[in-house]
Amino acid sequence: MIVIKVGGSAGINYDLVCDDIALLVKEGQPLVLVHGGSHETNVLSEKLGKPPRFLTSPQGFTSRYTDAETLDIFAMVYAGKMNTRIVERLQKRGVNAIGLSGLDGRLLEGPRKASVRAVVDGRQVLVRDDFTGKVERVNVALLRLLLDHGYTPVVSPPACSTAGEAINVDGDRAAAMIAAALGAKQLIILSNVPGLLRDFPDERTLIPRLAYGELEQALSFAEGRMKKKVLGASEAIAGGVSQVIFADARITRPVFHAMNGAGTVIER
């Protein structure tokens, strides 16, 4: 079992990712695909006159400010356009994919944060109207039911709060929870860079291997969205996943190359 997370940044080649997934599924490799949609969400937000706003935590992690209106836009892109189009790509390639948001069947569940602490103009503030949370439970029975009947799950946020609300959650950390819950051997996180770079955006500074104990130090130089990916990797390995690989979603056979050590390989 492997779990693949493909990001939502500009430059990702979803056709190449789906080509590779189709080959793996036809070879009998069970897998779950988790996807993002950040770039498309930003584009739609601008078109709708609701420019994206981001919050930076005191620890340096960046997240999307998600009020009720932004949550609607987020759902339109993630559980709507992105999920549908990825499922369509896989169906065209002969994969019986089924699209799910984390809200469906409480697939991804956790508490909504009562408030979010952020740094604004050098001051720490509490943001209380934010629909975000953290995945604490995965409906493994639902995923196994689908996998056992020949379906390939394609999963996206939003998740389901413990009170039944739709909440924005980080896709990389959600994928880490899914991988741990399924007892996956590998979690492959694909994005628009070849892996973890010591000096972003210089791709010549790719770090080919990292030990689990080095992940905390990696947070000090990981840039932007890569910080959350590093945190997700740490949580996945702590949850029992043998190996996490950060790899390039812009190349031919991205999953195959990642499974065979391309990118940044992290293991205990």
Automatic annotation (TrEMBL):
One of its GO terms (cellular component) is cytoplasm. The keyword Protease does not apply. Its EC number is 2.7.2.17. It comes from the Bacteria. It is found in: Cytoplasm. Residues 1-247 form the Aspartate/glutamate/uridylate kinase domain. The record marks 5, 229 as: Transition state stabilizer. Pathway: Amino-acid biosynthesis; L-lysine biosynthesis via AAA pathway; L-lysine from L-alpha-aminoadipate (Thermus route): step 2/5. It catalyses: [amino-group carrier protein]-C-terminal-N-(1,4-dicarboxybutan-1-yl)-L-glutamine + ATP = [amino-group carrier protein]-C-terminal-N-(1-carboxy-5-phosphooxy-5-oxopentan-1-yl)-L-glutamine + ADP. Its main location: cytoplasm. Pfam families: AA_kinase (PF00696). One of its GO terms (biological process) is lysine biosynthetic process via aminoadipic acid. InterPro entries: AceGlu_kinase-like_sf, AcgluKinase_fam, Asp/Glu/Uridylate_kinase, Glu/AcGlu_kinase, LysZ. Catalyzes the phosphorylation of LysW-gamma-alpha-aminoadipate. This is Putative [LysW]-aminoadipate kinase.
